[in-house]
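Lecture notes, continued. The same structure-token format from the folding unit now serves as the input rather than the output. Read the line below as a description of shape only.
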């Protein structure tokens, strides 16, 4: 068994598919179906890789079922299991996750860990989820509408603040942006590594490598796995990988150029922001950084979009919000 342990939404599905595809598999064992199923020749959708259905348990009960099925299913190749966090935090969630990873360590021949470095957490600062769907906190219903997902998230974590904000009828884009900027901590995201025993032998991949240079790094991974790459598939895989890369391009640019954008705003440099196709949450991350790191805010009334750093430089003002009341959450 090969286990893929990752931070949420950083490419674990694509990586798990790649293990099977580059090993030359045409089928793989699906614990959900309790049967061998066809491996797709291309896992990509418009936003992610979920044309491939990984053995990915989302709750502790699912993990027990999936893992028990995998360890009792004979194979002359390998099975895969993919795990990040369990959906919906509970008092036992961290302990459940740690116990699950410990059980994986007992049975998996190889473990691959994929995690963000701290400076790449801004990858998650985006309005639309990479997974495409989410479980609503209020009903546990699975939905794919970004507005419904976002509003449910705000209702769950920031109800008191949101009620006060909405009572003032502050619902325009510039007001929503400021609410996000004041309440979300963009430096905090979920990470898998705190749940993994540091003494466990594993292969570590930084998400920046996975997103950007893994067409080279994948060969090192397969050497670690002691599995030969099916050479006839490598070039096809590279084409698929480069298409997958493009899905991440805007988020990657935001990570790479964030400090440049902030410096451009502070110093009045002329940087075109339209190239980054910023969404509301990314704009809020910029405003959040100005507020909490420099004690500046932006006079954004009636400002629909951030288009240029000089535009924003001219809108700088001293922050007037009480920073002692910052609400912190994990994205």
């Amino acid at each position: 068994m090969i286990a893929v342990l990752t931070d949420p939404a950083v490419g674990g599905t694509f990586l798990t598919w790649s293990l099977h595809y580059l090993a030359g598999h045409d089928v793989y064992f699906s614990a959900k179906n309790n049967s061998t199923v066809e491996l797709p020749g291309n896992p990509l959708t418009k936003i992610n890789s979920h044309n491939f259905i990984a053995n990915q348990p989302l709750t502790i009960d699912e993990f027990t079922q999936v893992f028990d099925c995998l360890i009792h299913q004979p194979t002359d190749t390998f099975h895969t299991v993919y795990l990040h966090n369990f959906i919906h935090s509970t008092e036992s969630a961290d302990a459940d996750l740690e116990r699950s990873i410990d059980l994986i360590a007992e049975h998996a021949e190889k473990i691959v860990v994929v995690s963000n470095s701290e400076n790449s957490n801004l990858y998650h600062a985006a309005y639309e989820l990479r997974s495409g769907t989410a479980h609503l906190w209020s009903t546990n219903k699975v939905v794919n509408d970004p507005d419904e997902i976002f509003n449910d998230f705000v209702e769950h974590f920031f109800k008191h603040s949101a009620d006060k904000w909405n009572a003032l009828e502050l619902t325009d884009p510039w007001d929503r942006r400021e609410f996000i900027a004041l309440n979300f901590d963009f430096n905090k995201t979920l990470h898998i590594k705190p749940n993994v025993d540091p003494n466990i032998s594993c292969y570590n991949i930084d998400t920046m490598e996975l997103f950007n240079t893994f067409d080279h790094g994948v060969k090192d991974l397969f050497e670690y796995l002691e599995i030969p790459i099916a050479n006839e598939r490598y070039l096809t895989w590279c084409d698929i990988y480069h298409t997958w890369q493009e899905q991440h391009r805007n988020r990657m640019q935001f990570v790479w150029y964030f400090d440049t954008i902030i410096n451009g705003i502070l110093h009045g440099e002329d940087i075109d922001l339209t190239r980054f196709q910023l969404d509301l949450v990314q704009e809020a991350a910029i405003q959040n950084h100005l507020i909490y790191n420099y004690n500046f805010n932006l006079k954004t009334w009636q400002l629909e979009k951030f288009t240029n750093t000089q535009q924003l430089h001219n809108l700088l003002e001293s922050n007037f919000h009480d920073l002692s009341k910052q609400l912190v959450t994990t994205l």
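Point for the exam: Residues 327-331 have pLDDT under 50 and may be disordered.
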